[in-house]
Write a structure and sequence with these properties.
Chain lengths: 338, 415
Amino acid sequence: MARMTMIEAIRDALDVAMGADPRVVVFGEDVGYFGGVFRCTAGLQAKYGKTRCFDTPINESGIVGAGIGMAAYGLKPVVEIQFADYVYPAYDQIVSEAARLRYRSAGQFTCPMVVRMPTGGGIFGGQTHSQSPEALFTHVTGLKTVVPSNPRDAKGLLLSAIADPDPVIFLEPKRLYNGPFDGHHDRPVTAWKTHELGEVPEGHYTVPLGKAVVRRQGQAATILTYGTMVHVALAAAAESGVDAEVIDLRTLLPLDMETVAASVSKTGRCLVLHEATLTSGYGAELAALVQAECFWHLEAPIRRVAGWDTPYPHTHEWSYFPGPARVAEALRQLVEVA
Amino acid sequence: MPDPDALPPLSLTVPEPEVRPGGQPDFSHVAIPRAGTVRRPPVDADPEEIRDLAFTIIRVMNREGEAVGPWAEALDFTPDDLLEGLRHMMTLRIYDARMLNAQRQQKTSFYMQHLGEEAISCGFQRALAPGDMNFPTYRQAGLLIAAGYPLSAMMNQVFSNAEDPMRGRQLPVCYSSREHGFFTISGNLATQYIQAVGWAMASAISGDRKISAAWIGDGSTAESDFHAALVFASTYKAPVVLNVVNNQWAISTFQGIARGGSGTFAARGLGFGIPSLRVDGNDYLAVLAVAKWATERARRNLGPTMIEYVTYRAGGHSTSDDPSAYRPAEESNAWPLGDPILRLKNHLIRLGVWSDDRHAQAEAEILAEITAAQKRAEAIGTLHHGQHPSPVDMFEDVYAEMPPHLLKQRHEAGF
């Protein structure tokens, strides 16, 4: 075991994958010599050479499109989009191409590619460095979508994603890169080195895609969440006095419905939490699935807490962000329903 | 059928800059013509006959500070106009220094400076008329300064305080002023290049007289939107000036990654039949001269012009960037085109309308003016202190009329 930040854990996963398999190639904007603006690829070019880890022109459609070509050829590209907010020019390549290559060619051509991108806010990044676009990917059939919440999962999930035969969207909550942020922005930053999930096994291991994990056992309500909001949910559970069970979904698609249904069936109350905007968000899918599978166990309407339906505002970041106070209040209301 | 095995195996080319940290900066590969030596064709010249202008560097001021050659002769700026231009550039540089410092003091979350690139935006704006529209990137604040936009409004935006015209919604330096011909900055790259073409097409459709100016950096020319802009501008002969600021570095990536096998960025325009000029971006007079040429083409309905400004980003990409990690720290001093402010200053001294003393005095005046404006802005508020836009405002302007679901969320948020 080694103590790592999420950045180091991601870099370690890439290092392990590149060391084990010469087909793994890593590229994106500022990814090569410099090692990425968040340093997730630092040292990889020096170690594996510049044909396996390199800088690209600033063209996200080009990055993903070239990745698809390489994946179809037989390589395993792990590409970086510098911020999730920059992925939209690549959307056509992801939706119309990467996601459908296998289907439309009846398996002749496939796309074992990982598209990594930092997601979420909390760094005063304004409208163009803060978004959480996961629902745009979970809505597209043919893609898998992963959101880790800690270094240990980040490495294991990334290694699973790289091994996966299909395209995987890998969203890295940037506010978690250096520590388990629980939404209390006015308190000192906690580092991963003091957190048990900052302990990362050495070498190769995987955390399977499609498996959620219970982060906190509870009886009174279930919080379904992922990424940064896992830590916010844990803080809210502790501060609200509501004995909430916190489920870290880890993979949004395919979803571990078994773990979700078992928990909601037990607690009878469900709160869905994400940082992304509310309307048509991933939480809507979760709520629909929970009511379909757990309807007779529910003792209260399912609640959603999410980012407001506005662009991510720079100054009002902390009025926008669904922090522990909002989550705690929603939890209290959820358990008060008779 | 050829035998592929008869050839050596393929290998991937990944371009590298000439020098990395630890190396000796070397710009000997940058071919720099002597000032005044590049011809100035008429603005209605056949694009096919001026292709050479995309592969040279148009320069006006020589080492002695004289303005020479055909581009100089076509300039109609008085010494007073040039003194005003010098003042714009000095203002931008001092403003940048103050705001950089303010960021280090956590008065703002973020800042981006123009160091070494002041001549481009400060100069280009002089060729525009009221009603024309710039679609700028984050490194063209000189357009605002030269258009007379108040420094206090810029600072209020950077500090995200209660008087921020963007109401705290935008990252610092993402200014917007319709009145001053400055389109709202997106923060995403290249997206607005094609919008500038659309704006120009709208003026033509409307039988108007306004033109537009698109702005992009060397790195972002790789984006698909850049190429979309060129094909639209070319097809519809849009009255737009397509500006490319080649400051050599896109964060850590040298310009060769975006340029690829093409000789220059200006040459990108040639494939679309767009007349393309390459100019010394650190030569204020050369910037004025090409801006005048290109805007005249647009106003006379002759269509688009592409301009590549050859310059150097002397500072970091932003306050989040440390360039010493990817390029030699001394590289900026080795840049052969010099400092734009120093060069115009020397020219004005040569003209006999300026002196070192007056320059020092002007510097002190501008600093005092900016410091006073900063005090006023800080008295209103900075990122973490003072007065800010109300959070209720967060829900405004998403739509012209707030739909019920958003109103419900606003109430839920307690407003």
